[in-house]
Amino acid sequence: MTTIKFLKEDREVVVADGANLRLKAIENRIDIYTFVGKMTNCGGYGQCGTCIVEIVDGMENLSPPTETEKKKLKKKPATYRLACQTLVNGAVTVKTKPSAK
Ligand code: FES
Question: Which CATH code, of 3.10.20.30, 3.20.14.10, 3.40.50.1980, 3.90.550.10, is assigned to 2-96?
């Protein structure tokens, strides 16, 4: 077991090792999508790029970026990940909707 801390929401959730970051956010009612993303998200297939999160701490505890993810995030900061492509293997701190104010 490990933890995901959602910074903006001030919530910490306990998850099993290898948990999918997007699914755990949804299960815990953490809102990872902006308004547009809610309407258009691809359902976790790495296609839409709307599930972007910023990893504030613990990047080393995540699964390495997938090929799809690397393409989607080419022009984004190295701290950004697609939640749906990210598996959590250790404690991590996450900022949702990093480009929203
Ligand atoms: S949900 Fe579409 S890329 Fe993650």
Answer: 3.10.20.30
Q: Output the tens digit of pLDDT for each of the chain's 101 residues.
A: 999 999 999 999 999 999 999 999 999 999 999 888 888 999 999 999 999 999 999 999 999 999 999 999 999 999 999 999 999 999 999 999 998 65
Q: Which of 53, 67, 84, 94 to mutate to test the pocket of ligand 1 (most atoms within 8 A of CB)?
A: 84
Q: What is the pTM of this model?
A: 0.94
32 lines ligand 1 (CB under 6 A): no
CA 101 to CA 67: how far, in whole Å?
A: 29
